[in-house]
Amino acid sequence: VSEFNNDVLSREDIVDKAQRDREELVEKLLEIYPRLAGRLPAELVADIIFDVCDWGIATDHLNPRQYAYCDFSSKRIFLNSKLSATARKLKVEEMCLRRTTLAHELGHIRLHPSEMENRDFRSYLGPGMGYDDSRSDQRENEAELYAAVFLAPKAMLEETEEVIVLRDAIGLNDCKEIESLNSRLSSINEELATRFKVTPNLMSRSLEAYELVIRRQGTRDSNAFRLQLATRKWRARHE
Ligand SMILES: [Zn+2]
Fold first, then answer.
1. What does the alpha-carbon distance between residue 143 and residue 234 come to, in Å, rounded to a whole number?
2. pLDDT at position 143
3. Distance linking the first and last C-alpha atoms of the chain
């Protein structure tokens, strides 16, 4: 048992915390800049970090696979100065990758202060560069989950045509229909990612957080993932 375990939260706690945090932090931001009302969380995350949380955002020369890290001693998030090259390689818009990365770092700031404070912690490593320490891996998953819930509010997602279709299909027993939907899940996920201005990787985690899909990590490239509809049948087998 580590001395830092006081930050450990359950999955439900994190979903809950990210939801409440978003509401609270957006409200505080809108008190400062009322003209930002109606913007997506992704469009607000940098301003929230800067103006509400009082953290700075800077860049640093980092390994290409490391997107960013937060430095609790100077209260600054350092983004990889070559994030645009990473975005090109991943075939995602740089702005989406930047916002998604910032939300992940915000997750660390809000979830892991006592674990990470005063340590020059290299927090967001790209695919294949995870720490051996399992708590470090957990922290990364927690920050990812936080970002997924923060950037794609459940209520907003549920209003989209795509999610209405997914929700209806989850109750289906018609295998053919489910299969046909499964084959379209990745393009549905990309459409939603574009709409919420996040990376497809992050959007798949949002859909997973709200139990609409099952997400399977690719074996070789950890950015690769496969999605499957979270049907009742599947749940009955696995829960
Ligand atoms: Zn991280």
1. 27
2. 95
3. 28
CA atoms of 30 and 48, how far apart (whole Å): 10
Q: 7: CA distance to ligand 1 center in Å? A: 14
In the prediction, which pLDDT does 133 show?
59
Distance 154 CA to ligand 1 centre (A): 23
* 17 vs 174: which has the higher pLDDT: 17
Q: What is the pLDDT of residues 23-59, one digit of tens each?
A: 999 999 999 999 999 999 999 999 999 999 999 999 9
Ligand 1 centroid from CA 169, angstroms: 34
Phi, psi dihedrals of residue 2, rounded to the nearest 5°: -80, 155
d(CA 199, CA 181): 21
What residues have CB less than 8 Å from 35, skipping those under 6 apart?
Answer: none
Interval between CA 127 and ligand 1 midpoint (Å):
12
Three-state secondary structure call for residue 225? strand
Dist. CA 125 → ligand 1 center (Å): 7
pLDDT of res. 171: 79
Cα–ligand 1 centroid distance for 140 (angstroms): 5
